[in-house]
Amino acid sequence: MGTITSEQIAIPHPQEQRNHSRIKLYEELEGGQGREIFFRPHRYTPDQFTPLNIWAELTIEGIQYRCELRDLSQGGLGIIWPRPELPVINQEIEEITVCFDHQYAYVGRASVSVLRLEEEGHLVGLDLQDSLIKIDAILQTRDLKRFHLGDSDLGGQAQPWQVEGQHEFKGRVAELKLFLEDWDNHFNRVEAQASWDLLRFDEDHPTRRALTELVHRDFMAPFLEQTERIYDSIKGLNRAEQEPLKVYSQRYLDEYFMKAPWIHRARTKPLGYPGDYEVMNHIYGRRMQGRSLIGQAINYSTLHSPAARAVRNRKEMLKFELKRNLERLSAQVTDQPIKILSVAAGPAQETFELLSELKMINRPIDIILFDQDAAALAFAYGRLKKLVQKRWPDKVRLVYLHDSIKRLLEDKDIFNGFGPFDMIICSGLYDYLRHPIAVKLTSHMHSYCKTEGTVYIGNMVPSNPSRWIMEHHLDWYLLYREHEEILNFAQEACPTSRHELLTEPAGVNPFVRITRLG
Question: H helices within 80-214, ranges in order?
Fold first, then answer.
């Protein structure tokens, strides 16, 4: 990897579709892979049509052959060839029939487009010649049949929220809903009596300040207290045991929680993972936002929950550590730049605030921001470029590296040409890394450091009081570690270095500071 100037940032064309059915593990996340400029209809495998019985028949020389169907799309299908005589590319098949539950989806000609040998036989791809298959109609029929077979929780036959016992949890969830209903009614009366643009006043407007004070004083404390009591009632249960309770909780409370913009974004995950840069910006901003006053109150209050406060605290802690190290390194007599690496940098809030608050820079500073999310780097680039040009044009060089988390974990040489570094910070990535991966990455980051260089790695602890909201309503699961476990992976990765635990005021997101001694 060669040197990248401060004007360069590699941002690929975004994928046209994202599959949100499963949140990827961080070590699976890929970076940019180039532009996808050719549309290709989605291919469905037969099991995706269950419980429909779907099959294909082809007619050659007047003989019908039932085929094993491998995949199906609007414009074609893949089958295992049923005859000993193989077709050739572009050969026309006089008739192909696609059926589901004795309904005809297609009857007409096809041409051979793919011929490939597989374990089950020769896979043949066929392009339909006379029309397209109405896939949507087949899927709607499938969904309707699933509903009648009891595969839907709307019909009352499947009730994923049902679980025996857990009366304390259920009672507290119900009480929280009543609490929110009462406040929603109160806020509706406030809105009816106030000016129509109450929701859109600037934060500094007197009415908005009074409203924020009301929420902070009367709503937030009992709301957060109830959320923490709900977590206390289930914290001894494993994830599988909590699943029906999660559905129960969402059925009761989602109508209110989803009115909070940051909760909605974290839950829907438009970039494929919950803690994206926009979510982090919400946490740093902790504002009253939303289309209704109850939504604004929930948004504001949850952004003051212990986990959200811990995120802001760790930003302040890292900023303090960076300043302290810059003062120490600036005293050294050398023209070599101080080098800082931020791994999984996100919106780079601590970097932005650091460069905004510094009064003087005696030595040049190179700051490398690495992230797998191009949108996060674009956001950081947009505001840091202006800041550096205005305050530190000859002192600070910013480099934006867009690559995959997968490569970060596998390629020890990913930062060749940019280091060695005086400081490396990594705030939230380890919350998603299993122990062997955490050890491996820590070893790599330690190797990127100069002697007396420091690595800062954060990880949230299991006692996080905000876990019920995060797991049940944001679908946001972390790999929590106790203090000893954080020290363990650091000591295992670099046993000859100095290891110290740093804690932030909320006690939720400690850091290990690793100092390379040789």
Answer: 135-148, 167-193, 206-214
- Residue 292 is given by DSSP the state S
Question: Would you place residue 230 in the very low, low, confident or very high pLDDT band (cuts 50, 70, 90)?
Answer: very high
Asked whether 401 and 19 are in contact (CB, 8 A), the reply is no
- What lies within 8 Å, CB to CB, of 328 at 6+ separation is none
Q: Are 181 and 294 in contact (CB under 8 A)?
A: no
CB atoms within 10 A of CB 131: 12
In angstroms, what CA-CA distances link 329 with 246, 348, 421? 50, 22, 12
Whether the Cβ atoms of residue 452 and residue 515 lie closer than 8 Å to each other: yes
Assess contact for 52 and 141: CB atoms under 8 A. Answer: yes
* Global model pTM greater than 0.85: no
Q: What is the pLDDT of residue 201?
A: 63
Domains in the chain (CATH in brackets) are: 46-148 (2.40.10.220), 167-304 (no CATH), 331-515 (3.40.50.150)
- CA 509 – CA 158 distance, rounded (Å): 39
Q: Are 321 and 513 in contact (CB under 8 A)?
A: yes
Question: The tokens of 343 are what?
Answer: 């791994």
20, with CB counted inside 10 A (0-12, 13-18, 19+), is: middle
Which range in 26-30, 162-166, 318-322 is most confidently predicted, on average pLDDT? 318-322
Query: Cα dihedral angle (245, 247, 248, 253), rounded to 10 degrees?
Result: 120
54-75 b/e with 16+ CB inside 10 Å = b? bebbbebeeeeeebebbbbbeb
- Token reading at 192: 């009816």
Q: What angle do CA 416, 280, 503 make, to 5 degrees?
A: 80
Amino acid type, 262: W
Asked if omega into 51 is within 30° of 0 (cis), the reply is yes
- Max Cα-Cα span within the chain: 90
From 32-41, 332-341, 348-357, the region with the lowest mean pLDDT: 32-41
439 in helix, strand or coil?
helix
The 365-371 sheet, strands edge to edge: 396-402, 365-371, 338-343, 421-426, 449-458, 511-515, 498-502
3-state SS, residue 507: coil
Tell me how far apart the terminal alpha carbons of the chain are, to the nearest angstrom: 26
